[in-house]
Every structure is written in structure tokens, then in C-alpha cells.
Specification:
434 Repressor (Amino-terminal Domain); Signal recognition particle protein; 56% helix; 3 domains; nucleotide-binding; 19 helices; alpha/beta; cytoplasm; 439 residues; flat; binds guanosine-5'-diphosphate; Rossmann fold; GTP binding; Four Helix Bundle (Hemerythrin (Met), subunit A)
Length: 439
């Protein structure tokens, strides 16, 4: 999502940086390109026009501060406006004074409401809350069961009435149950339709009247492009929503919706869904998304992801092992698995500054899988002391892991080199790496 736009912006900025001084015609040219790339990314035309006008006013009116590269200054202006366009600062979920804070979800069928209900519950649970869910989707036959299964996976209770068609009644009774259970948040999954219709809106309004939610969040599939903006407008007119959730942000659509919703509808995006797994949820931080688009990286999100995936005890025990030179292939395997927990390599690298566009990472990922399979085919003893491996065992391991003996040998050699490096680091004798200032 937003990859193409990122690539275009980075090209434009490269050109802008090349100019020692920014003249009015340089700026005009750059702005024309910014405009084209936003339109290509499927951003609403009116939004683009306003955006360009704001940048133009600022860029042309600004005195070039001495000591600062004018190109950088231009990028800063675009960055600030982009953050504003995306919704300013990150808008968090409301927390009501009384428990539970009720969050009602709305959206079309297939948008990802049920999945998001579970993702949000999981997120809240991790922040120390006690979530509770209600399935009031009385139309899609499998919806209640789906939420029940997801609830079990994350150990969050789900209230539903199988076979019932009384969505409002389900919500009323579910709310009582959530109070009895002393829940701090109640998330209500409602029914969707393939298209907006009167009946759906009436039902949602009835639920709203009955449960008086502190927040109504509209769940929208980001893949539907510009329609997402129209949809958000219709739901907002009927229900006065509090925020938007964009799902399927991992898809490869152009992402213009993300950039248009706040301006057109006036409501912020609060979360984005980035995959089908329950953990595939990110808070929507306008500043971070803007930096990602402008190729400045998103180190903060990366660090947060790493903190989630790697626990501190593991990190300490790893450090101890490196220091005492007991790092073995089992530890190596664990590290590989930690990297995998962060997500696909491509999406990790994209968060680093300067790595805006990257080539095909499939070979690197394949290589990681190979190494994992090889280590998993070894016995515990062999993982601790790979030097005991004889040719016949290497052949068995290659067969067991679907690789060649040469792959096994390559891994063992790399592992030996790695251990040598660690030995040097832990003894304080740093190798003389070209390009680094050695002692
Ligand atoms: P609902 O009808 O609105 O309740 O939609 P569901 O929660 O059943 O989701 C519809 C489909 O979209 C399912 O196959 C989900 O796995 C998938 N889905 C939901 N959120 C995401 C997301 O963020 N990324 C991707 N790739 N798929 C998603």
C-alpha cells in the first residue's frame, strides 16, 4: 500500500535536492509532479487541489533559512502538510468514565469487521483492558460462529444468540453480560450488507440508540479505493461515526483512500489492518505513515514491532550466550524465528530510512526457510556441537530438509565464521573491517 506513491515522491525529492537554490519555477515543476503522483495514487481530486495550494503558499512565501538546504525545506513543508492531510496527530480510542466503554463497529459485508473485532480485543487485552465482544451479525450465517472461534483463540468472551434475528435484543442482553463480567471494553460486531441499504442503516441506528456507544468505528476495505470515501460519507451522515478503520492495508491498491478520508469526511483513521492474522493491526500514526511515503523510514514502528516480537529475557540470555561463547545452532534458529515474527522481510526493510524501494526479497526469504529446515533436521546434540556431523549425517539432514549437502556445508561454514566474529567481539579484539575506523 502506498508503495508507488512513495517511489514517485522519492524521485521528485531527489530532483529537488539537486538544486542549490529553489526558484519559483523549480517549485512549480516539483508541485506539478507531486500533484500527478497523488492523482495517480487515487487521491480525491479536490483533496489534491487543496493540498497543492497549501504547499505552494508555504513554499513560495517562505524565506530560505540560511544553513538549511532549500530542498530539505521543501520536503519538510510537504511532510507537514501530508501529516495534516492524514489526520494530524494520532487519535486514540475513547475511554468512557463508566465500564464498559462501548465500541460499535459498522461496515459492509466482507470489509473485515469480525476480524477487526478480534484484533481490537487482542490489542486492548495487551494494554491491560478486559474486553468483551458481542456478535450482532444476524444475517451472515457463519458470522457468530466466526467471532466465537476468534474469541476462544484470544481468550475473550463472546455473547451471541444463535439463530436469533433480533440484533437490538442481542446487544441489550450482551451489554448486561459484559457488565456482569466486569469488562472494561465492549466491542459490538454488527451485520453488513453488500451495499448500503435503508434497512441496514435503520438497524444500526436502533442499536446505537439502545447501547449508546462511546465510539462508532466504520470498518472499510482499503482495496475499494475512492469508493471508501463515499462509503465513509454515507455512514457518517446516517450514524455520525467517530473514526475509520482501514483494513487490507497490506494489499497492493494505490492507497488514495487513506489520504482522502480525513479531508472529505472529517473523521480520522484510527487503525489499519495489515493482514489476516489477529496480530496484524497497527495504530494509524499520520506522522509515521507520512515518513514512510516520503522515504524517511518508520523506525519507531519497527522498534515497537521488535519489542512485541522479542521478549527481554530472551535478549538477556542471548547476550549471555554470546559473551560466554555458548551460542549454538539452536540459538541461531531462535534468532531466525524472531526475525520472521516481525513480518515479511520486505515490510521490515521498508520501515528503515533510505530503503524506500527494494527489489525482490523472495530469494532471501527462501534462504532463511532453507536454513531453518536444515537446523530443524538436526538432533539436539548436533545443534549444540555441529562439529560432530559426519558425511553420512549431513546427507541425511540434507534429505530430511529437502536441501543439498552443499547447503548444509554452507550453513556450517557461515555459522563457524559467525562464532569466530562473536569470539572476537566478546574478547574485545575487533576485526579490521574495511571502511570502519579500526583501532
Ligand atoms: P466482515 O464481513 O466485515 O465481518 O468481514 P471478515 O472479518 O469476515 O473479513 C472478510 C475477509 O477479509 C476475511 O477473509 C478476512 O480474513 C479478510 N481480512 C480482514 N482484515 C484483513 C486485513 O487487514 N488484511 C487482509 N489481507 N485480509 C483481511
Amino acid at each position: 500500500m502506498l508503495d508507488n506513491l512513495g517511489a514517485r515522491f522519492q524521485d521528485i525529492f531527489k530532483k529537488v535536492r539537486g538544486h542549490g537554490k529553489l526558484s519559483e519555477s523549480n517549485i512549480k515543476e516539483a508541485l506539478r509532479e507531486v500533484k500527478m503522483s497523488l492523482l495517480e495514487a487515487d487521491v480525491n481530486y479536490k483533496v489534491v487541489k487543496d493540498f497543492i495550494k497549501k504547499i505552494q503558499d508555504k513554499a513560495i512565501g517562505t524565506e530560505v533559512v540560511t544553513g538549511i538546504n532549500p530542498g530539505q525545506q521543501f520536503i519538510k513543508i510537504v511532510n507537514d502538510e501530508l501529516v495534516e492531510l492524514l489526520g494530524g496527530t494520532n487519535s486514540r480510542l475513547t475511554k468512557g468514565v463508566r465500564n464498559p466503554t462501548v465500541i460499535m463497529l459498522a461496515g459492509l459485508q466482507g470489509a473485515g469487521k469480525t476480524t477487526f473485532a478480534a484484533k481490537l480485543s487482542n490489542y486492548l487485552k495487551k494494554t491491560g483492558e478486559r474486553p468483551y465482544m458481542i456478535s450482532a451479525d444476524v444475517y451472515r450465517p457463519a458470522a457468530m460462529k466466526q467471532l466465537e472461534v476468534l474469541g476462544k483463540q484470544i481468550d475473550v468472551p463472546v455473547y451471541f444468540e444463535e439463530g436469533s434475528k433480533d440484533a437490538v435484543g442481542i446487544c441489550e442482553r450482551g451489554l448486561e453480560k459484559a457488565k456482569e463480567a466486569n469488562a472494561t471494553y465492549l466491542i459490538i460486531d454488527t451485520a453488513g450488507r453488500l451495499h448500503i441499504d435503508e434497512h441496514l442503516m435503520e438497524e444500526l441506528k436502533d442499536i446505537k440508540k439502545t447501547v449508546r456507544p462511546q465510539e462508532i468505528l466504520l470498518v472499510v476495505d482499503a482495496m475499494i479505493g475512492q469508493d471508501a470515501v463515499n462509503l465513509a460519507e454515507s455512514f457518517n451522515n446516517a450514524l455520525n461515526i467517530d473514526g475509520v478503520i482501514l483494513t487490507k492495508f497490506d494489499g497492493d491498491t494505490r492507497g488514495g483512500a487513506a489520504l482522502s478520508i480525513k479531508s472529505v469526511v472529517g473523521k480520522s483513521i484510527k487503525f489499519v489492518g495489515t493482514g489476516e492474522k489477529i496480530s496484524d493491526l497497527e495504530l494509524f500514526h499520520p506522522e509515521r505513515i507520512a515518513s514512510r511515503i516520503l522515504g524517511m523510514g518508520d523506525v519507531v514502528s519497527l522498534v515497537e514491532k521488535a519489542q512485541e516480537a522479542i521478549n527481554e529475557d530472551d535478549a538477556k540470555s542471548l547476550e549471555e550466550k554470546i559473551r560466554t561463547q555458548q551460542f549454538d545452532l539452536d540459538d541461531f534458529l531462535k534468532q531466525l524465528q524472531n526475525i520472521k515474527k516481525l513480518g515479511p522481510l520486505g515490510s521490515i526493510l521498508k520501515m528503515l530510512p533510505g530503503v524506500g524501494q527494494i527489489g525482490d526479497l523472495a530469494p532471501a526469504e527462501k534462504e532463511m526457510k532453507k536454513v531453518e529446515a536444515i537446523i530443524q533436521s538436526m538432533t539436539k546434540e548436533e545443534r549444540k556441537k555441529p562439529e560432530i556431523l559426519k558425511a553420512s549425517r549431513k546427507q541425511r539432514i540434507a534429505k530430511g530438509s529437502g536441501t543439498d549437502v552443499s547447503d548444509v556445508n554452507k550453513l556450517l561454514k557461515q555459522f563457524e565464521q559467525m562464532k569466530d566474529m562473536m569470539k572476537m567481539f566478546s574478547s574485545g579484539k575487533f576485526p579490521n573491517i574495511p571502511g570502519m575506523r579500526g583501532k
